[in-house]
Amino acid sequence: MPDHTPIPIDSRRIGDDEVGKPAVFGAILSGQPLEIHRNIFEGDYSRFRSGVWQCTPGLVAMKDWPYHEFCVLLSGRVIITPEGGSPREYKAGDALVLPMGFTGTWEILETGRKYYAVQA
Predict the structure, then answer these.
(1) For residue 44, what is the DSSP state?
(2) Which of 67, 118, 69 has its CA nearest to residue 96?
(3) Selected residue with higher pLDDT from 21 and 44
(4) What is the DSSP letter of 40?
(5) Percentage with pLDDT > 70 across the chain
(6) Sequence-ordered list of residues with C-beta below 8 angstroms from that of 106, at least 6 positions apart, any chain
């Protein structure tokens, strides 16, 4: 019988003293962004995942993002610029949806941490 117990997603799953690895969510254009992510839940044969993510400052180009992603920024500031579109700044407390196929840049101005849920 499947377990249907709610699963808390706690931002402290990433320690304040942890150092990430070079960002792989896109091509690094400037800086040395280091990212950490913790998948806390996977379902639907790994097509759905949720957890917590953190990245240090830098500029990253994304091409054809492979997920629909909902995220809530917990800390930091980022500027997201869709290809051919206008930049928009997001800060702690802001929520957004990054549609599958997104192409553009993420400029992480201050180390950012977010909750995320992605559907492939």
Answers:
(1) T
(2) 69
(3) 21
(4) E
(5) 99
(6) 25, 26, 59, 60, 62, 78, 79, 80
